[in-house]
Amino acid sequence: MKTVRKIELLAPAKNLEAGIEAINHGADAVYIGAPKFSARSAAGNSLEDIQQLVDYAHIFHAKIYVALNTLLKDEELADAEQLIWDIYRTGADALIIQDMGILNLPLPPIALHASTQTDNRSIEKVQFLEETGFSQVVLARELSIGEIKDIASHTHVALEVFVHGALCTSFSGQCYISQALSGRSANRGECAQYCRLPYTLHDANGKILESNKHLLSLKDLNLSEQLEELLDAGVTSFKIEGRLKDTSYVKNTTAYYRKKLDVLFEKRLEYRASSSGTSAAFFVPDPNKSFNRGFTTYFLHGRNKNSASPDSPKSLGERIGTVKDLSNYFFTYSGKNPVHNGDGLCFFTNERNHKRELIGFRVNRVEGNKIFPADMPRLSPGITLYRNYDHEFEKTLSKKSAERKIGVELELEENNFGFSLTATDEDFYSATITVELAKELSKKDPKANIREQLSKLGNTPFQLTKLSNRLTDNWFIPSSILSDLRRKVIALLLSVRKIAIQKPIKPISPTYHPYPETDLTYRGNVSNEKAGEFYRQHKVKTIAPAFELNPPAAVPVMFIKHCLQYQLGGCPKQGTPPKFSEPLTLTAGSHRLSLQFDCRNCEMQVLQ
Length: 608
Hints:
Blueprint: E1 5-13, H1 16-24, E2 29-33, H2 47-59, E3 63-68, H3 77-89, E4 94-97, E5 111-114, H4 123-132, E6 136-138, H5 145-153, E7 158-165, E8 170-175, H6 177-182, E9 199-202, E10 208-213, E11 220-222, H7 227-233, E12 237-240, H8 247-267, E13 271-273, E14 278-281, E15 295-296, E16 318-326, E17 331-334, E18 344-352, E19 355-367, E20 370-373, E21 384-389, H9 391-397, E22 402-415, E23 418-425, E24 430-436, H10 447-454, E25 462-469, H11 479-501, E26 519-520, H12 529-537, E27 542-543, E28 556-560, H13 564-567, E29 584-588, E30 591-598, E31 603-607
Parallel strand pairs: 1-2, 1-12, 1-13, 2-3, 3-4, 4-5, 5-6, 6-7, 7-12, 11-15, 22-25, 26-27
Antiparallel strand pairs: 7-11, 8-28, 9-10, 9-29, 14-22, 16-17, 16-21, 17-20, 18-19, 18-21, 19-20, 22-23, 23-24, 28-31, 29-30, 30-31
Helix pairs in contact: 1-2, 1-8, 5-7, 10-11
């Protein structure tokens, strides 16, 4: 029989509320931003909130990972060190980091995860991080299923892969355009999202190839139909993007992937969830109903033209039908999906500079297939309608929308001086409470009352799966004593579970194995002396400062797998030479960016 491998569904949380709901809706782990030094500076959380989330998650043996994944300056290292120790004291299970200088600080014994910002897309890089002491590595989103499988076959470290959510256009950790154009560093959690702007694309002769389109904007990732492939490729952790998303997004996407994985685990017994309990959602999860720009599998099965979102970086939502007839105050639509009062609808139109714009409007009321907008938009018959805000769905998610329970068996027994109640949960943790009580026969059959009193687990994280009454006779046990036994044994079982998850972790020791490169440019992201020390002890000979410290001139500021040359139908590697003159240029307002194509490595680079 194959060894059972524990698989993790990893959900995002911008705050405590979202984190708790992620756990309730089936997450095996949650990642959340630290108070400072997080790659989403707008999603920092207090230590008190992190502590509360840890305490709640650990009931279900779910884990909490704290993101402290920005580049640090020398003057910030002392604060970062103190913060890491404070996070460790909350009981958090791991730190997600980018800056290698952290490894040369005196660290507590806490697990370290290598952020996707460390640009993890080769066997050699992941092997290096594993040997360094990282317990989990977040792989680049651009990897194919074959590349993931190759990395897994050459390493033993847990591999984490994004399966859902927004896609950064540039390789994570290798995007400097925000710093170059605005002084806001993506590697320090302050990305200005220049990839979502509309650009005009010119060739070398000034010919406009594309006008006023979001040429660097991508659709959102959705690998929900490829989970089994990823499991078999060696992935351990399935990550949902979204530390800036609202709680309803977290509820919906987490419940959706939980359901998908549970179905897989039923037929693939060599895999199981890494945490405890069963989540029951009180709604039908559907990722189309949460924020999305349309979906793509990106490069999982090779390059394709279905990854771009050039018409709009806004949420498109779900397709609901087409416009049929128009009136002054309403229109009719044709489609199977019902529309509700309060819904937000949108459509693409061609009005300005030949640019398809996404126009949204709110539904005031609905009568059959007649839709009365709050303000009548400029529609025409045949236009496709999308719903990017489902009022009824959001209303459902604004309430309690899931419940998570751990299975527990209770066994009531007698002994020489009274009675005992033993609780054994689905993970086989057990607790027993005994009470001294003289044995007296009951005047009526006590079995029904015993079951009623011991089954009252409603406000606990447990649900009764089996009750064994081992009494040899119809002994009388007062209801108050039965209730007290139940409360105490459940409290003790929770304590046992809490102790069981507190497994000691060996602190990371200094290592000296060679880094895959001997010379680091600004792309090495070395922003402090501790990071420099780390790379020097790993045989790196020359180290340039990070872009944020000393921006070099005339260098690429984005490194992108997504290729506009390919999108335009001119890919030399596929035997279709470009039909335009290079170099190509992107313009947006006063910004002018040059493109160059590294066809050998199948990458596009953007230069300031």
